Amino acid sequence: MSVTDDAIEAIKQMIVDGELRPGDRLPREADLADRLGLSRNSLREAVRALSLIHVLDVRRGDGTYVTSLEPSLLMDAMGFVVDFHRDDTVLQFLEARRVIEPAVTEMAARCMPDADLEDLAKLLDSLGDRPTVDQLVENDLEFHRRIAGGCGNPVLASLLESLSGRTQRARTWRGITQEGVAERTLAEHRAILHALTARQPDVARAAATVHIAGVEQWLRQTLVE
């Protein structure tokens, strides 16, 4: 490991051990470098690296702090990596969604607040009878984002949001090329919403599986053709 890697590992261990907690300010650079037996340059590089993945927050003129370490914040780093996916890997993202999203939807059927379910119904109603492709995709993304947010697990919600956004281009292309996709998408969304409102976790899971699998199946056929 490089000296910078050693510094990253040392700071990480201080956080894991509870010596540094969310919101805590790091010791002065000179003091921390001396304590860890590192050069100040190596320590700066470590701090810079940890700030990029939102573990540390460098506040100019104030110091360096441990962030909240909330899952949604830390998962931004994964989103950065996922942004580098190629078009030929979009199927892998859809496969990942097909594994994760039904489970998240099942969880939401158990714990999503009634008020949030009512707002979900209003979201679908706001789309109208003849939405544009862009309106359909935007509504679709928001629909799934809200369900993920209602599952009670911020880690899963953040993970799913990272995956879901990366299939947006495929959804847009499907909306342009496949006839009747708006009606089908709305019908599948309403089936999911009905299961959520009825508090039927198994049915909600099945409806979400059918919905995601439909996009995946269409894309597979498109790539073959």
Keywords:
225 residues; mainly alpha; two-stranded antiparallel ribbon; 2 strands
Question: What does this 3D model show about the protein?
Answer:
The model has no long low-confidence stretch (mean pLDDT 84). The longest helix is centred in the C-terminal third of the chain and has 24 residues, at 201-224. This protein has a two-stranded antiparallel ribbon with strand order 1-2. The N and C termini lie far apart (48 Å). Helix 6 (114-125) packs antiparallel against helix 7 (133-149) and helix 7 (133-149) packs antiparallel against helix 8. It is built from eleven helices and two strands. Helix content is 72%, strand content 4%.
Blueprint of the fold:
Elements: H1 3-16, H2 29-36, H3 40-52, E1 56-59, E2 63-66, H4 71-82, H5 90-111, H6 114-125, H7 133-149, H8 154-165, H9 168-177, H10 181-197, H11 201-224
Antiparallel strand pairs: 1-2
Category by helix and strand content: mainly alpha
Question: Using DSSP, what is the number of strands?
Answer: 2
What is the radius of gyration computed over CA atoms, rounded to a whole number of angstroms? 22 Å
State the order of secondary-structure elements, H for helix, E for strand.
HHHEEHHHHHHHH
- Biggest sheet: strand arrangement: 1-2
Strand content: under 5%
Termini Cα gap:
48 Å
- What's the overall geometry? elongated
Count the DSSP helices.
11
Mean pLDDT over all positions: 84
Helix content: over 70%
Main beta sheet strand tally, sense and closure: 2 strands, antiparallel
Ranges where pLDDT stays below 50 over 5 or more residues in a row are none
